[in-house]
Specification:
By secondary structure, the chain is an alpha/beta fold. The protein folds into four domains: about 140 residues, Rossmann fold (3-Layer(aba) Sandwich); about 90 residues, Immunoglobulins (Immunoglobulin-like); about 140 residues, no CATH class; about 50 residues, no CATH class. About 20% of the residues lie in helices and about 30% in strands. It contains eleven helices and 32 strands. Strand 8 and strand 9 form a beta hairpin. The protein is elongated, with a radius of gyration of 40 Å. About 5% of the residues have low confidence. InterPro entries: Aerotolerance_reg_N. This is Aerotolerance regulator N-terminal. Keywords: Membrane, Transmembrane, Transmembrane helix.
Length: about 575
């Protein structure tokens, strides 16, 4: 049993005056009569008895008390059985960035969703609400089965800033929470596309409107020494052919003041325009486009993203040709510090524990091709071996990456790279393949360093991170800290909301990355519309079985008790 309006039980206070009326008698004055035979039921005791007396009409009192109870239950909106559990309504809100778009009246789609959700809950007579937000990782905003006021408060504080996604998994999950045959209400800004399989028990409500929009679809920053290079891509989804891009560079280390500039950008009808800017000694760089239907995708804040240096050391046992070839490369390689230091990566001859081994042992053989390489491996990006004369010895351990006949020329073993190469009899070091190959080795070593390999990501992109074994890590973002498990190169799921994410080791910050609210799919607003797709008839019938208002049976009990009391009091 439950009560929709518990204050209605205050009507039970009428029991007090009712019982007092049956016990309390008004004292009558003595009246002298000649005989008592004219009285139907003479009561001599009532003429001069006590003020309170035991009454004789118990049935009437009980019936009137029952009438008061029935009236109180009706006012309190009593429910029994299935009705006592109330009406459970499941709402799903699209968490995509496009719901933050402003309509012609300046009201966002999300604000319209809030109003429609409140109206829908009131019309459905909801007593319990489960509120979900769709996304790459669906969220429970309220519930399961929370009070309607709590669900509406959670929806009021919710911000739709997610990436484009498939809403079907969230809708199927919502159906499980609603129960068999129960309807699910989904709010978004466009009707379902042709061919999209929408569950039949979902009532699809679109509250969007087509709008023109100019948006940033990518923003990256790279720092090399005091020079910062910012690369932006601006796309036009309708609207003006030229916009003014405002860029504000805050002062960085060694700078007394920042700089601000406005760059005119001509936008193509399809695709995006690329803008590249450079700054010296810049701190945070703020980029913004003129306000339009979706201001969120026209702003970005880029923090310094310096290339992390790689520390390398050359082993003393290296042969002279190998040492000279490696030193020539390291003298021009950017972001490389050479010297013996703690944590430096060692390059040395075969048979050592060096991260890169260069040399050949055993019987030497020379190859001029054909060379067979493992396609797609990052160490072989842009490595062209045409015209190379390669002299190799015995096969090194590990997984082969480059082979010639039955000889392994390059292999990888647990993060170590083995270069089976006798430089004194080869010409690889004099071809473009040599610096490209070593540059790939340095790049992979940089990627294996602790922290974020990328410092600017678009919303919806997986977050790569590198951790070291033996330490406790956590990822702190707009939704709070979250522990990380595993060691080495990890690929975390896409963060649910944009913002700044900090990698913590034992509670201390190690590196930061910014997830920007940029997504070309969500910035395309020209196809947004409004409309409604009703759920199937089975869902409406199932919902119709739920109570739509107050229970009527207490009124029947009230009327019956009053009629029976009238009959009892009318009897002689």
């Amino acid at each position: 049993m439950s009560f929709g309006f518990p204050w209605g039980l205050l009507a039970l206070a009428a029991w007090g005056p009712l019982v007092a009326a049956y016990f309390l008698r008004r004292r009558q004055k003595p009246v002298t009569v000649s005989a008592l035979f004219l009285w139907r039921t003479p009561r001599p005791r009532a003429e001069a008895g006590p003020r309170f007396e035991r009454f004789t009409r118990e049935a009437s009192l009980l019936l009137e008390a029952l009438a008061v109870l029935a009236a109180a239950l009706f006012l309190a909106d009593v429910r029994w059985g299935d009705e006592a559990r109330g009406r459970h309504v499941v709402l799903v809100v699209d968490g995509g960035l496009s719901l933050s778009a402003r309509g012609p009246d300046g009201v966002t789609v999300l604000e319209r969703v809030r109003r429609e959700a409140a109206t829908r809950l009131n019309a459905e007579g909801a007593t319990r609400v489960t509120l979900l937000a769709s996304g790459l990782s669906p969220q429970v905003l309220a519930g399961p089965e929370a009070e309607p006021s709590r669900a509406l408060a959670a929806l009021e504080s919710f911000q739709a800033l997610g990436a484009g996604h498939d809403v079907t998994p969230t809708l199927l999950w919502a159906q499980e929470l609603a129960g068999p045959g129960r309807r699910v209400h989904f709010f978004t800004d466009a009707m379902p596309e042709e061919g999209l399989a929408v569950p039949p028990l979902v009532r699809w409500t679109a509250l969007g409107a087509p709008r023109d929009n100019v948006a940033l679809v990518s923003a990256q920053r790279r720092d090399e020494g005091p020079l910062a290079t910012v690369t932006l891509r601006v796309a036009r989804f309708g609207g003006p052919e030229q916009v003014a891009l405002r860029v504000l560079a805050r002062p960085g280390v060694g700078a007394k003041e920042g700089s601000e500039r406005s760059e005119p950008v001509t936008l193509p009808a399809e695709g995006a325009a690329t803008v590249r800017l450079t700054f010296e000694n810049a701190g945070d760089v703020e980029v913004s486009l003129p306000p339009d239907a979706l201001p969120e995708d026209g702003q970005a804040r880029l923090v310094p993203s310096a290339v992390r240096p790689v520390r390398l050391a050359l082993a003393e046992a290296l042969e002279a040709p190998a040492r000279q070839a490696l030193e020539r490369f390291l003298s021009v390689a950017p972001g490389v510090e050479v010297g013996a230091a703690e944590g430096a990566l060692l390059w040395g001859p075969p048979g050592t524990d060096a991260r890169l081994t260069v040399g050949a042992s055993g019987t030497l053989r020379t190859f001029v091709g054909p060379f067979f390489s493992e396609k797609g491996h990052p160490l072989l990006d842009d490595v062209q071996l045409g015209g190379v004369r390669w002299t190799a010895g015995s096969n090194p351990p590990g997984r082969p990456l480059v082979t010639a006949e039955d000889t392994v020329l390059l292999s990888e073993e647990d993060g170590r790279v083995h270069l089976n190469l006798a430089l004194a009899r080869s010409n690889l070091q004099r071809t473009p393949a040599w610096p490209v190959l070593l540059g790939n080795v340095v790049r992979e070593a940089r990627r294996a360093q602790e922290g974020f390999p990328r410092h600017q990501l678009n919303v919806g992109e997986p977050l790569p991170v590198v951790t070291e074994a033996g330490a406790r890590y956590a990822l702190e973002g707009p939704l709070g800290p979250k522990p990380l498990f595993g060691a080495g190169a990890l690929t975390l799921p896409a963060p649910p909301v944009p913002g700044r994410y900090t990698l913590l080791r034992e509670g201390d910050p190690v590196d930061v990355a910014d997830v920007l609210p940029l997504d070309a799919r969500e910035s395309e607003l020209r196809g947004r519309n409004s409309g409604e797709r009703q759920a199937s008839a089975e869902a409406r019938d199932a919902d119709g079985a739920a109570p739509a208002g107050r229970a009527r049976w207490p009124l029947g009990v009230l009327l019956g008790a009053l009629l029976l009391d009238f009959y009892v009091t009318r009897r002689p």
